């Protein structure tokens, strides 16, 4: 097990996939990190040297990811609600925010637009 950004990652996992397991890091950001440190997409965590793992962790600390990003998103939604915008009201009611229809299918909106207070 290798410690990457404070999380234990299995040694047989692909580096690209391990990076994408963090909230806020997708394909393009993982590609950019791998390219910056000359890591092939099919490289495994066990093939990385300790200085590269430290460098990747240092690079990840410069980004807004994981709990910081979740907190930032929640704060933005709460800010919208507090100033009384249309989007804030839709978030508070658990309805679609970006102009979707509400007659038939709003299950996803009710699931995603809940205000989370436990973050």
From TrEMBL:
Q: Cross-referenced Gene3D superfamilies, in alphabetical order?
A: 1.10.8.50, 30s ribosomal protein s13, domain 2
One GO cellular component term = small ribosomal subunit
The alphabetized UniProt keywords are: Ribonucleoprotein, Ribosomal protein
One GO term of the biological process aspect:
translation
Q: Which residues form the signal peptide?
A: none
Q: Pfam family example for this protein?
A: Ribosomal_S13
Query: Any keyword Nucleotide-binding?
Result: no
| Gene Ontology MF term list | RNA binding; structural constituent of ribosome
InterPro entries in the record:
Rbsml_uS13_C (IPR027437), Ribosomal_uS13 (IPR001892), Ribosomal_uS13-like_H2TH (IPR010979), Ribosomal_uS13_CS (IPR018269)
So what family is this one in?
Answer: Belongs to the universal ribosomal protein uS13 family.
Q: What is this protein called?
A: 40S ribosomal protein S13
Organism lineage = Eukaryota, Fungi, Dikarya, Ascomycota, Pezizomycotina
């Amino acid at each position: 097990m290798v410690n990457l950004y404070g999380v234990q990652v299995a040694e047989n996992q692909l580096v690209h996939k391990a990076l994408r397991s963090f909230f806020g890091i997708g394909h393009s950001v993982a590609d950019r990190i791998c390219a910056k440190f000359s890591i092939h997409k099919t490289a495994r965590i066990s093939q990385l040297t300790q200085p590269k793992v430290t460098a990747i962790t240092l690079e990840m600390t410069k980004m807004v990811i994981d709990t910081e990003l979740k907190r930032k998103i929640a704060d933005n939604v709460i800010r919208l609600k507090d100033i009384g915008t249309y989007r804030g009201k839709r978030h508070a009611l658990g309805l679609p925010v970006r102009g979707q229809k509400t007659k038939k299918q709003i299950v996803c909106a009710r699931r995603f637009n809940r205000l989370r207070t436990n973050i």
